[in-house]
Design a protein that fits this description.
Keywords: Membrane, Transmembrane, Transmembrane helix. It is built from two helices and no strands.
Length: 45
């Protein structure tokens, strides 16, 4: 099993995974800021 996964040991896979996770976090934060906060402000008024 470890031999089948050894092709994913290259640092490029870790970099790609980090990029996808980073963009996902940024996208989630931007969604909260751009849609969640105005919605909460609208409810408070």
């Amino acid at each position: 099993m470890t031999d089948a996964l050894s092709q994913f040991d290259h640092p490029a896979w870790l970099t790609g995974l980090g990029t996808v996770v980073g963009y996902g976090i940024i996208l989630a934060l931007m969604t909260i800021v751009m849609f969640g906060l105005p919605y909460l402000v609208f409810l408070a008024v």
